[in-house]
Specification:
- The protein is an all-alpha fold.
- The protein has two domains: 52 residues, no CATH class; 28 residues.
- The protein is 63% helix and 0% strand.
- The radius of gyration is 18 Å and the shape is elongated.
């Protein structure tokens, strides 16, 4: 409770627009799963570096574009090493 608590969870899940969903649906979201994992790591005083799930479709698309660009850059760097 010192690390998490209802208010902290409510504030976190509100960022995802899920604060008014029924309990079963709310606690089964990717955001809630991320939050549980994050709290467990904090309670053990262990660093948690996983990225929070995207809050909306636009953020998901932006992350996908970033990953694609990184993959393309890595592939390009591998091909240029042959010359």
């Amino acid at each position: 409770m010192q690390i998490g608590g209802n208010k902290a969870f409510y504030d976190f899940i509100k960022e995802y627009g899920k604060e008014r969903d029924d309990i079963k649906k709310k606690y089964d979201t990717d955001a809630a799963k991320f939050y549980r994992k994050m709290i467990c790591f904090r309670a053990r005083n262990v660093a948690y570096e996983e990225r929070a799930p995207p809050k909306n479709a636009q953020e998901a698309a932006e992350r996908a574009a970033e990953a694609t660009a990184q993959g393309a850059k890595q592939a390009w760097n591998k091909t240029t090493s042959f010359f």
